[in-house]
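EI: anyone free to look at a 257-residue chain?
SC: sure, send it
EI:
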Amino acid sequence: MCRHLAYLGPPASLKEVLIDPPHGLYRQSWAPRRQRFGTVNADGFGVGWYAGDDPVPARYRREVPIWADDSFADIARVTRTGALLAAVRSASEATAHDAAAAAPFAADGWLFSHNGRLDGWPASWAVLAATLSSAELLDLEARVDSALLWALVLHRLRSGMEAEAAVLGTLAAIEDAGLTGRFNILLTDGRSITASASGDTLCYRAVCYREGAGAVVVASEPADDDPGWQDVPDGAVLTVSIDDVLNVSIDERIEIR
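SC: here you go
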């Protein structure tokens, strides 16, 4: 359905994180190695990143394939960040195809991406939409299942839940409604990453740089053949903080299939 990636660590250029790795997200748009559903991710892309102390992330989203955007390579070469979330999209049936439908979605300093699909879309919309207010539904960025899932997660974040609880609560609500699908989620506020593995591949790689500084990449699939990549078990939620990127926590509690 798509490939996505989140990064926390020392400032690096978007090019270093997304384009330079031999099997990085850029290449995964046309040649993914582990994608279980679909073969290419040419229905748009997006990158969100945090600049300095500004808690509001910048976003660059397009409805074209990432390789077809002549400007992105220049932007990626000169833009540096210590936290980003990016995705390349393979659109599900009956979903919008404009730039607004491309992850990451954003609000309140958060960035969100969903790799998967909500089965039964768009009929399944009504079951979950009923749990949101009219204002929340009007704020949906696009008429796609991923935007609805983001609204459900954001609703819980605004109620005071921590990121992991918001993701798990959303997945529990989907299960309680009798709905199924694939729900690999990435969520970050620039200081931590929360990710779920539910129906598709997910992995991470944590590395130690100079003077003990650490970096972590959480991604749909490895960006290279380094043996340091670790698979996240299907049905698990991963959490990592920028204060301790070498301490990755995996909670195996998801039961949705």
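EI: The mean pLDDT is 91.
SC: 👍
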